[in-house]
TrEMBL record:
Gene assigned in the entry: tig
Keyword terms, alphabetized: Cell cycle, Cell division, Chaperone, Cytoplasm, Isomerase, Rotamase
Claim: Isomerase is one of the keywords in the record: yes
The protein's name in its UniProt record: Trigger factor
E.C. code: 5.2.1.8
InterPro entries associated with the record: PPIase_dom_sf, PPIase_FKBP_dom, Trig_fac, Trigger_fac_C, Trigger_fac_C_sf, Trigger_fac_ribosome-bd_bac, Trigger_fac_ribosome-bd_sf, Trigger_fact/SurA_dom_sf
PPIase FKBP-type domain ranges (all copies): 171-231
SUPFAM superfamilies in the cross-refs: FKBP-like (SSF54534), Triger factor/SurA peptide-binding domain-like (SSF109998), Trigger factor ribosome-binding domain (SSF102735)
Organism for this UniProt entry: Bradyrhizobium ontarionense
GO terms of molecular function: peptidyl-prolyl cis-trans isomerase activity
Pfam families: FKBP_C, Trigger_C, Trigger_N
Length: 452
């Protein structure tokens, strides 16, 4: 076998490989010898079929299998010897002319092919013991608890029909019937009759509720939305859709008295018990917000201390995912880049910068996890699936079946678990100090956080 490197530019490499016909023929003959004990051919006793006869019948198909296996084994050997970690699947280019292919399959010609790869660069990890990370912490006040209970009361309040001719406002409950289409074609699950929508509850596809503001009973509107990229149904994720929607009733919310009786309707003994429950729940939310802030700070530190050229193909892939989502969202909302005080070229540049950061951080986290033998167990993934199912009451079995039969969806659940375990590993080594902040500061929603 002869291997010649024909390209070495940055992270891109290309090799030309030539495998002698005699080597392929020997491997194919070995497969045929193994085959003779397994096939049954009229006129021959089991295991007594001559290899030459088998070659006439199965020669080309066995040679094709031999070539496929030889290419895989050879590529693995080349990459392993050079210490390559592949960023993408190898791109193999084979002869295409019929006469040349025939000669290779019949053992008359050597196999010559090229393989192109893009590799992950060597990553020198920082000393995480030198990292200083600030941990923002906010106290939960009585006002926070009261506000949370008020939101809970609003969610459990009743509704009364509005006067004839009244229009829907934020907070109103609108009963609608709709038919959804994508590129003019109806899709499964896109039709609903007598569905209650509370405007501002953010329970429907982003943009759906807002477009109901101002609608009247009997009025029909075409609502334009884009399914989130992380939507449960992968066939709909990221796609723009239209819903022909008719309002059949509009109701305004009624005030709910917050007292012991209200607490009892929720299965609690008293208002004091409800307040304690909400305080505990807020503690979980505050801790999660603190976690997100700490994680962001840590990712910034990793970004600062790990500067290297990421594989261009991975950056392109990440950028295209984000850009397609941005374009679909803008198309559905009718917004332009001018509305966002930017241009398309400038927006592309910004998103490509974000894509580069995401890819580099992903590679760094992967390197840390690999070197420190950090793994995600099947039990941890199963617990994540259960939590996802619990978040969709009434659809638990549907969610469970979806993940059980969808390896890609499971991988999407596994990735954040792995990332969090790597983050925890670094925080164990870093110098973490607490800092008291206000609730507003803890929960502020920076664009930079979204980019991270």
């Amino acid at each position: 076998m002869q291997v010649t490197e024909t390209l070495s530019e940055g992270l891109k490499h290309e090799f030309q490989i030539s495998v002698p016909a005699a080597d392929l023929d020997a491997k194919a003959d070995a497969k045929l010898v193994d085959l003779k004990d397994k096939v049954r051919i009229n006129g021959f006793r089991p295991g007594k079929v001559p290899v030459a006869h088998l070659k006439k019948i199965y020669g080309k198909s066995v040679m094709a299998e031999t070539i496929d296996q030889t290419i895989r084994d050879t590529n693995t050997q080349i990459f392993t010897e050079r210490g390559f970690r592949l960023a993408t699947e190898p791109k193999v280019t084979m002869p295409t002319e019929e006469a040349e292919v025939e000669k290779i399959l019949t053992g008359q010609s050597d196999l010559t092919y090229t393989v192109a790869v893009e590799v992950v660069p060597a990553i020198a990890l920082a000393d995480f013991k030198t990292f200083s990370v600030e941990k923002p912490v906010a106290d939960i006040t009585d006002a926070d608890v009261d506000e949370a209970i008020k939101r809970l009361a609003d969610a459990n309040r009743g509704y009364a029909a509005k006067a004839d001719g009244a229009k829907a406002e934020s907070g109103d409950r609108v009963k609608v019937s709709f038919k959804g289409t994508i590129d003019g074609v109806a899709f499964e699950g896109g039709t609903g009759e007598g569905i209650d929508v509370v405007i501002g509850s953010n329970t429907f596809i982003p943009g759906f509720e807002d477009q109901l503001i101002g609608i009247g009973v009997g009025e029909t509107r075409t609502l334009k939305v884009t399914f989130p990229t992380n939507y449960l149904n992968n066939e709909l994720a990221g796609k723009a859709a239209e819903f022909e929607t008719t309002a059949t009733a509009i109701e305004a919310p009624e005030d709910k008295v917050i007292d012991d009786e209200f607490a009892k309707t929720l299965g609690l003994e008293s208002l004091d018990k409800l307040k304690q429950l909400m305080r505990d729940r807020l503690a979980g939310e505050f801790n999660q917000a603190t976690r997100q802030r700490v994680k962001r700070t840590l990712l910034d530190r990793l970004d600062e201390t790990h500067k290297f050229d990421a594989p261009p193909s991975l950056i392109d892939e990440e950028f295209n995912l984000m850009w397609n989502s941005v374009k679909a969202e803008m198309d559905s909302s009718g917004k332009t880049f001018a509305d966002e005080n930017t241009t398309e070229d400038k927006a592309k540049e910004e998103y490509r910068t974000i894509a580069d950061r995401r890819v580099r951080l992903g590679l760094v986290l992967s390197e840390i996890g690999e070197k420190n033998k950090i793994t995600v167990t099947d039990d941890e993934v199963s617990r994540a699936v259960i939590e996802r199912a619990r978040s969709m009451p009434g659809r638990e079995k549907e969610v469970w079946d979806f993940y059980r039969s969808n390896a890609q969806a499971l991988a999407q659940l596994r990735a954040p678990i792995y990332e969090d375990k790597v983050v925890d590993f670094i925080l164990e080594l870093a110098n973490v100090t607490e800092k008291k902040v206000s609730k507003d500061e803890l929960f502020k929603d920076d664009d930079s956080d979204k980019a991270a």
